[in-house]
């Protein structure tokens, strides 16, 4: 087991595309870190540089305190699991699992023990004589993971290992991978574009866009205190709503002027934004930060957004209201289900300011209220 460190690591491909731009990241010994971001943001390239499958343009990758930039993949003692599993089709499951150990000329009895241990952990002990084509997708996935486990490497690298599975199986395998990590505690770097997978699996998540790390932290930390608008919009379903508007000072208080409605900021937010009155900003509101009734945390009389329902999506206990305001045509409020709501109904949305953030304008605009959430949660 080992720590993996990236220091100012960049990758520019021959055509001139910079896939990874001066990335700094330390994955601690035994840690499970997830790289997440939209397609093309450089996740796989990062992983492949750690594995040694891709040359590093600049910077240094270290594994267990040793710079490995020029070390061939087979000497790095890490195991990678790919999306397509890459099993040997003509070999049985047993042989697939044993293959890498045979190459290392490990003793037959030791190989057998490792293969059977891994198979037991993964619940595939009764499949050892089958060939990959006679397995389901989930079983193949387990074999692919098993091949990584038997090697007892310093670190696991996973590149979207669950994306070929159907939704239900993905969730099951996700939990299984988490259990496996608790058991083995092997340093793991896991790549996905699925923010839910990232949040549920990672000790820490690293949110990337266009080769740049935008934020790195524990899942809840990144969710509750996003560094900027990109991160805020990427994590969470339905995504955060963004309203463009202006800060206005009135009677010693600070308000967000949405254009058609004015919302009072929380005292913790006012403090942080006091010298920004008059400036254009973006208010981010989580869908579950709005309710149609002024109850509990939604009771602020000045935290109200009048809106019109366009679509109601009933999900059971909760429903998503798609609403418009004269200024903002696409907002989503996730509320507890109510039978009496109708399409085209005019409603008032009561906003829980603890579920809001104020950003600078622009798609990557910085969060100007980092830390306010925590203060509000404690208040
Ligand atoms: N061999 C290559 N030559 C040139 N450009 C490449 C090469 N491999 C990747 N790229 C580019 O580098 C960028 C990052 O690609 P990468 O595969 O790392 O993205 P990703 O985050 O894994 O995306 P996805 O979620 O779609 O797998 C992309 O713009 C991609 O087109
Ligand atoms: Mg990829």
Summary tags:
single chain, Rossmann fold, OB fold (Dihydrolipoamide Acetyltransferase, E2P), 6-stranded mixed β-sheet, 5-stranded antiparallel β-sheet, 20 strands, binds adenosine-5'-triphosphate, binds magnesium ion
Using the coordinates above, name the CATH class of the largest domain: Alpha Beta
CATH superfamily of the largest domain: P-loop containing nucleotide triphosphate hydrolases
How many discrete structural domains? 2
Structural shape: elongated
CATH topology of the largest domain: Rossmann fold
As laid out across the biggest beta sheet, the strand order is 6-7-8-3-9-10
SSE order, one letter for each helix or strand: EEEHEEEHHHEHEHEEHHEEEHEEEEEEEH
Number of helices: 10
Structural class: alpha+beta
Task: Quote the beta fraction.
Answer: 25-35%
| Residue share in helix | 25-40%
Q: How would you concisely characterize the structure shown here?
A:
The chain is α+β, with helices and mostly antiparallel strands and 379 residues long.
Structure description:
By secondary structure, the chain is of the alpha+beta class. The chain folds into two domains: 4-233, P-loop containing nucleotide triphosphate hydrolases (Rossmann fold, 3-Layer(aba) Sandwich); 239-378, OB fold (Dihydrolipoamide Acetyltransferase, E2P) (Beta Barrel). It has helices spanning 43-51, 93-103, 108-122, 137-150, 167-184, 195-201, 219-224, 229-234, 267-273, 372-378, and strands at 4-12, 18-27, 32-36, 58-63, 66-67, 78-81, 155-159, 187-192, 204-209, 212-217, 241-250, 253-257, 262-264, 280-285, 290-291, 304-314, 318-324, 331-336, 346-351, 356-359. A six-stranded mixed beta sheet has the order 6-7-8-3-9-10, with helices on both faces. It is elongated and about 80 Å long. The mean pLDDT is 94. Adenosine-5'-triphosphate is lined by residues 13, 15, 17, 19, 37, 39-45, 193.
